Amino acid sequence: MRDNASTNADYTQLRYAQCWEDADVLLEALNIQPGQTCLSIASAGDNTLAMLSKGPARVVAVDLNPAQLAALELRMAAYRDLSHEELLVLIGSRSGNGREQLYRRCRNRLSPSARDFWDAQNKEIRRGIGGAGKFERYFRLFRTRVLPQIHSRARIKRLFEDVARERRIAFYDEEWDTWRWRLLFHIFFSRFVMGRFGRAPSCFKYVEGSVADRILNRTRYALTELNPAENPYVQWILTESHPAALPYSLRLENFESIRDHLDRLELRNESLETFLENEKNRAIDCFNLSDVFEYMPEVEYERLLRLIVLAGRPGARLAYWNVLAERNRPDSMRDQLRPLTDLARSLHARDKAFFYSALVVEEIV
């Protein structure tokens, strides 16, 4: 992509050690069928692996950042060589000793570049590889430096009690939503602080209005309308673990299905645009596009959508998220893409990765 965040992003580091989109929502949006061909933004690999559980013939994981592909490679090796419980320990979802030994058992399966990357990450491996990214370190800073200034450990623990919606709303309004919570939240999740410690500043190039206000509104939704006791994303942010809920790819019931289909996964270290320009045979059935359109001007967004249409079969589905910048199929493409608006809204209403302002699901005509 030209003139977007990828132009200025730093690809010497791991930006995301986990996928921060809800795979349950993604899989329902895409409706992957056995034998299909799928394209996925690799990110840390969780949602790409989740797609494998549906038995597609081929999943192509694309990412311009080799560190993100190294994260996916290590996960693939862990599925092959570790038990389910050992995988959870390596990720950091569960406590446990010997993460370095678990890494060494997986190490020989890695490509030389991925091996070099992870060999230099001893500290992060010891903590759990799910916390190794810049974005996760940003949440760690919030959890260790900011949150203790707002709420006690006892109150944070109460947040995860499995109670009815009415009790969650009362708890949030009466005990959680203090002036100190609002003040420090607005500072920590401001455009400036997020740009410095969490995401690349270029990610906000096409965003208007208060970043913190929008995220705070979505956070209230996640802590009241949704159930924190069932939300792995909230749990990781506040505890750096998954004490009561796991994302789709880490659940025991999906472990063997993912492992059994790993040979159908292809990794491509290139931009999405480059891949699509070489794949114009209308052979792709499903597109997991993460939030890539957030970081580009509308003219580039439309250009990329047109490449996707050329690469996708009729009836192929696209799923992508808006964080702060609004991106939806332009009117100029209404004869090529059909919005699945009702489906997208119903899925977004239960999206556990709560900071997105919208989920977009579209179908190639």
Low-pLDDT runs of 5+ residues are: 1-8
Proportion of residues in extended strands: 5-15%
Within the largest sheet, what's the order of strands?
A: 3-2-1-4-5-7-6
CATH topology of the largest domain, which one? Rossmann fold
Radius of gyration, whole Å: 20 Å
Instruction: Identify the CATH homologous superfamily of the largest domain.
Output: Vaccinia Virus protein VP39
| pLDDT averaged residue by residue | 92
Q: Which CATH top level class of the largest domain fits?
A: Alpha Beta
| Number of separate structural domains | 2
Structure description:
- This protein is an alpha/beta fold.
- Helix 4 packs across helix 6, helix 4 packs across helix 7 and helix 5 packs across helix 6 (99-107).
- The protein is built from 19 helices and 7 strands.
- The protein has a 7-stranded mixed beta sheet.
- Mean pLDDT is 92; it is low at 1-8.
- The protein has helices spanning 5-8, 23-30, 46-52, 66-81, 84-91, 99-107, 112-119, 122-127, 134-146, 153-159, 165-176, 179-188, 191-198, 211-224, 232-239, 252-260, 272-277, 298-311, 341-348; strands spanning 37-41, 58-62, 265-268, 284-288, 312-322, 337-339, 358-364.
- The chain is globular.
- Helix 18 (298-311) links the parallel strand 4 and strand 5 (312-322).
- The protein folds into 2 domains: 5-69 and 248-364, Vaccinia Virus protein VP39 (Rossmann fold, 3-Layer(aba) Sandwich); 134-239, no CATH class.
Summary of the model, kept short:
The chain has 19 helices and seven strands. By secondary structure, it is an alpha/beta fold. It has two domains: 5-69 and 248-364, Rossmann fold (3-Layer(aba) Sandwich), CATH 3.40.50; 134-239, no CATH class.
